[in-house]
Amino acid sequence: MTLEWILFFALAAIAVLSALGMLRSRNAVHAAMYLVANFAVVALFYLLLNAPFIAMVQVTVYAGAIMVLFVFVIMLLGAERLSDESQALPLQGYLAWTAGGIVALTLVLVVYQSITTGQAPLPTTAVPADFGSPAAIGQLMYGQATPENPLSYVLPFEVTSLLLLVGMIGAVVLTRDALTRGREKR
Amino acid sequence: MLPGIPTYAYVGLSAVLFAMGVIGVLTRRNAITIFMSIELMLNSANLVFVAYARQYASMNGQVFVFFVMVVAAAEVAIGLALIVAIFRSKRSIDVDALRQLQG
């Protein structure tokens, strides 16, 4: 076993164990911390895959902003120790674990089969030194469409800003509505 | 880049993480934990995008990861606002507590 495989398996083990910890922990704050660890390890994988810009966005947006929002809402609701044991159907927990196990088994089998039949992997090729850098991604997203690169992402980028605007307004309206309804009751 | 690691290793890791996200959505009843499991699934999809962007030496996959992250951010903002609104009316974020439509 080479050094590279040892590094890969160590990082993969941290990723899988932190995901498992998120699934198993009863305290929502602990689950959020496990998820931050998982996102950080995935950011390391992005760095190893020549995607430094995506790795930085992963750390700032996912592990930073999104998880802060999660922890903020957990603290706001005092929801870190809400019971998680209700059962709407008989044997609901066992049914859910069986269905999830079937999905997991199917996914692993499909990946394993495509590896052994040799459909998935191509030999990895060399990439230029600035592959995945912020400048190169910016050139790709905002640059003119060229014959060798026929896609231009200017319009999708603008639509993205509209999506974020709608999301922001939606969040404000949803929480404001709940506030005013609470005041009417009093 | 780790030269000795083929792309299918990343695809296998991503499949495992995605399956754990599915199990989380199915087994947990706490709405916030379900949301975190959805984030885990989106993240595993991103990992495959980046792995194949490296495989084919094309940055279009990385641009798609960027868009997936934007959608995830918008989804979290709306979803957590919904959870706050539900908590204020029900005093609970257990998804089994939402059964007004049950006849």
Topology:
The complex is a heterodimer of chains A (186) and B (103).
Chain A: H1 3-24, H2 28-48, H3 52-77, H4 92-116, H5 134-142, H6 154-185
Chain B: H1 7-27, H2 31-55, H3 60-90
Helix pairs in contact in B: 1-2, 2-3
Backbone CA Rg of chain B: 17 Å
Q: Report, as a whole number of angstroms, the end-to-end distance of chain A.
A: 68 Å
Number of helices, counting only DSSP H or I runs of 4 residues or more of chain B? 3
Q: In what range is the share of β-strand residues of chain B?
A: under 5%
Q: What's the architecture of the domain at 30-94 in chain B, going by CATH?
A: Orthogonal Bundle
> Per the principal axes of the C-alpha atoms, what is the gross shape of chain A?
extended
DSSP helical segment count of chain A: 6
Give the mean pLDDT of chain B. Answer: 87
Judging by the overall fold, what is the CATH architecture of the domain at 1-81 in chain A?
Answer: Up-down Bundle
Summarize the largest interface: chains and residue counts.
A-B, 94 and 77 residues
What portion of the residues of chain A fall into strands of 2 or more residues? under 5%
Spans of chain A of at least 5 consecutive residues whose pLDDT stays below 50 are none
Broad structural category of chain B: mainly alpha
Helix content range of chain A? over 70%
CATH class of the domain at 1-81 in chain A: Mainly Alpha
Descriptive account of the structure:
The complex is a heterodimer of chains A (186) and B (103). Chain A has a domain at 1-81: NADH-ubiquinone/plastoquinone oxidoreductase chain 6, subunit NuoJ (Four Helix Bundle (Hemerythrin (Met), subunit A), Up-down Bundle). Chain A has six helices and no strands. Chain A has helices at residues 3-24, 28-48, 52-77, 92-116, 134-142, 154-185. The N and C termini of chain B lie far apart (57 Å). By secondary structure, chain B is mostly helical. Chain B is elongated. Classes of the chains: A mainly alpha (186), B mainly alpha (103). The interface between A and B is large, with 94 and 77 residues.
